[in-house]
Amino acid sequence: MVAELLAERGDLDGALTWYDRAVARLSPDEIETLRGPTGWMQMSSVMLCGRREVRSQLGLPADSTDEITPEPPSARRPVDVHGVREYIEAGRMPRQVRMLVFQRGERAEARRRWPQEYQDSDEEYYPAAERRWRDLAESGVPAIRVVPATVSQLCEFADRVGGSPTDPETKAAFGETVAEEATIAWPPPRNSPCWCASGAKYKKCCGQIR
Questions:
Q1: Helix (H) or strand (E) holding 15
Q2: What is the per-residue pLDDT for 135?
Q3: HEC per residue, 189-206
Q4: What is the pTM of this model?
Q5: d(C-alpha 66, C-alpha 99), whole Å
Q6: Is 119 helix (H, G, I), strand (E, B) or coil?
Q7: Closest to 187 measured CA to CA, from 125, 151, 141
Q8: Helix, strand or coil for residue 65?
Q9: Fewer CB atoms inside 10 Å of the end CB: C or N, the chain?
Q10: Distances (CA, A) of 47 to 3, 58, 103
Q11: Please, is 77 exposed, middle or buried when counting C-beta atoms within 10 Å of its C-beta (0-12, 13-18, 19+)?
Q12: 50 vs 77: CA distance, rounded Å
């Protein structure tokens, strides 16, 4: 936390000193876990990413710690549309993008629990999501999958990884853990149930949005 605060205030040398102190406290077991396939889910991976960013800003070459800094799977990029945009603009087209959503029943619970985070009405939210995804598809994203989430699942995951259920990175990380068969290919066939779980066919629901 000290390192993050110093970095935010522009004291990169001071931030690196504190990051290095944190790295020195990692146990061999923690380092081994970070090297594994779920290393990016560990809370310490956030610290390593911060350290690597500070070193990059200081113009320092990658070191052995930078090399073990885990990344989320790159085949699917963040749920946040703006993050996907940055990814595309960097010339790295993702093979698949996952979009985390609360379907209609769960969104009511999310709005009750986090009213400041989910202020849009359903009448605003679902059409806006549909338009964003169409925009991404037109940008060349080859595959978009909707990841239906429940409030309880997201909260449980956030507690497990030490994140906040309203944080975009936590939601993106949760989306990566969902099995492919539990997601919905977008756009669904016209006569299939709509991805928003309204109970209507896609062509009669979000599929008719202009």
A1: helix 12-24
A2: 86
A3: CCCCECCCCCCCEHHHCH
A4: 0.59
A5: 29
A6: coil
A7: 141
A8: helix
A9: C
A10: 9, 17, 33
A11: buried
A12: 19
Residue 76: per-residue pLDDT: 40
Rounded Cα distance, 45 and 70, in Å? 6
User: Are residues 25 and 44 in contact, defined by beta-carbon separation less than 8 angstroms?
Assistant: no
Residue 88: what pLDDT? 56
> Measured between alpha carbons, how far is 166 from 126 in angstroms, rounded to an integer?
18
Torsion of CA 200, 203, 206, 210, to 10 degrees: -150
Positions of E strands within the chain: 76-77, 96-101, 144-148, 184-186
What's the pLDDT at 154? 94
Please name the residue that has the structure tokens 């779920």. Answer: 38
**pLDDT of 62:** 81
Token readout for 95 is 């093979």
Q: Which two tokens stand for residue 75?
A: 């085949």
- Average pLDDT along the chain: 84
Helix (H) or strand (E) holding 110: helix 104-113
pLDDT tens by residue, 109-140: 999 999 999 999 999 999 999 998 998 888 77
CB 186 within 8 A of CB 195: yes
User: Please, which residues have CB within 8 angstroms of residue 165's CB and are 6 or more apart in sequence?
Assistant: 114, 151, 154, 155, 157, 158, 171
Boundaries of every domain in the chain: 2-68, 76-208
Report d(CA 33, CA 42) in Å as an integer: 8
Alpha-carbon torsion (69, 70, 74, 77), positive or negative: negative
Strand-by-strand arrangement of the 184-186 sheet: 76-77, 96-101, 144-148, 184-186
